[in-house]
Design goal:
Length: 268
């Protein structure tokens, strides 16, 4: 009877260990398909340049962070940069793509994806000095009422509140965005300062444009960005757990700092 009892206990113990190992290793050796914004989002993700020529390799701070997290969990990944609206749609379906690296918060995204915030940026407004050589008078959000606003297709400008509704959002990339400001069709646009500065890594030094004016947007707090994981991916909760714990480990171990410095960013 005693021997039989120990056999049962041993079997139960083996079952628990096997079950836990299977759960913990659900993504072990699997490939996560990632998409992100084809307009690029340096220094977080962008196409590597060699002698000024764009390659097919995607690099950046986000990829470095992901490599740290995924390699420890024996997870592989692919990444493709697509038109942003298409990427969001693909992730929501969860069939071809499972996650994106960088998306700001809004209610619709919170419903469609598991969000894991991992960095924050500072919102600036940008305008053309060709048309406003003395700058713009913007001390609070309500000052936007007198200007024509323009933004990128599929981008989230929730921090503007009601003024996002009056914004024309059909511009495909940052080059076109700056061009349309200089033409004078619109007065100003908005972007994270870190992104405009980061484009220097791609050979596009937007901030060196003597005709491009910019200033920090008042009444707008730093914007958190999230890794966005499809809720329709079967192992989405396990992926969220791995990403969340991986980011926390990088933060508390101090490993974020050298990664930030590598890409010209500062720990906040």
């Amino acid at each position: 009877m005693k021997k039989f009892f120990f056999q049962i206990v041993s079997c139960l113990f083996l079952f628990i260990i096997t079950t836990f190992s299977t759960y913990a290793g659900d993504l072990n050796g699997q490939t996560i398909n990632i998409c992100d914004d084809g307009a690029e989002w340096p220094p977080y993700h962008y196409f590597k340049r060699e002698n000024g020529v764009k390659t097919d390799e995607v690099v950046g701070y986000g990829l470095d962070v992901l490599n740290e997290i995924f390699s420890k969990n024996y997870i592989k990944y692919t990444i493709n940069l697509l038109p942003w609206k298409r990427c969001l749609s693909e992730i929501e379906k969860g069939t071809n793509y499972h996650m994106a690296l960088s998306g700001s918060y809004n209610v619709d995204r919170d419903k469609a994806y598991h969000l894991v915030n991992w960095y924050k940026t500072t919102v600036y407004y940008f305008y053309s000095k060709k048309h406003y050589p003395n700058g713009l008078i913007i001390n609070e959000l309500s000052d936007l009422e007198k200007y024509k606003l323009v933004g990128l297709l599929g981008y989230n400008y929730h921090y503007l509140g009601e003024y996002e509704k009056k914004m024309y959002k059909n511009i495909k990339n940052h080059d076109a965005l700056i061009k349309i400001l200089h033409i004078g069709r619109y007065d100003l646009t908005f972007e994270q300062y870190e992104i405009f500065a980061g484009f220097a890594a791609t050979g596009k030094n937007y901030l060196a444009d003597k005709n491009l004016g910019y200033a920090k947007m008042p009444d707008v707090k730093p914007t958190w960005f999230n890794m966005m994981i499809s809720k329709n991916f079967d192992q989405s909760l396990e992926l969220k757990r791995i990403v969340s714990e991986g980011i926390a480990e990088l933060l508390w171990s101090g490993k974020f700092k050298p990664l930030l410095e590598k890409h010209g960013l500062t720990a906040k």
